[in-house]
Amino acid sequence: MDAQSLPQRFAAGDPEAMAEVYAEHGRLVHSLCLGALRHRQDAEDATQQVFTRAWRTRDTYDPARPLGGWLTGITRRVIADALAARDRQRRSATAESTSLEPTAPGGLAEDLVDRVIVHEALEQLGPPQDEILRMAFVQDLPQRQIAERLDLPLGTVKSHIHRGLARLRRSLEVHDV
User: CATH number, domain at 163?
Assistant: First the structure.
């Protein structure tokens, strides 16, 4: 073994160091993934993603810092991504199943009326709250992405969503929607 430490060899791109990093930290990463995702196959996929990301982004790793901590940070982001993807799939499946359900004879007309009332209530909010709420709830965009698209601070977007939802709720309560 040469004079460089494992973190230094990893950061330098030594493939043998990657195997050693996996041998040393693989169980920890897998147990974190399994604990959060609760499915063995999902945990295995996430573990693989963690080490793939680590290898691809090794140039961002500082060998003076603990390698386990850096990998744990990557693991947290991979788990968050997996949970978000799972949530999107669940919402999509729910939306598909509800769109296939037969509606009651008057249900279609009532649904249309509700949509018109919500649309009008959104228009009454005015810019930028109406646009931000549509991006958040119709387009299902994350708040950070909305902030980037509108070139607004993230805190401002969050405030507009909070205040806009409160105003929308008051407006819809008047219509009993």
Answer: 1.10.10.10
Whether the bond into 128 is cis, omega within 30 of 0: yes
In contact, 121 and 172? CB cutoff 8 Å: yes
Q: How many domains does the chain have?
A: 2
In a domain, 1, yes or no: no
Among 66, 96, 126, the domain boundary falls at 96
pLDDT in tens, 89-141: 888 877 766 655 555 555 555 666 666 677 677 777 777 888 888 888 777 88
pLDDT tens per residue, range 25-46: 999 999 999 999 999 999 999 9
Same domain, 60 and 80: yes
Question: Is residue 164 within 8 Å of residue 125, measured between CB atoms?
Answer: yes
Number of CB atoms found within 10 A of residue 65's CB:
10
State pTM to two decimals: 0.54
Print the domain residue range for 14.
6-96
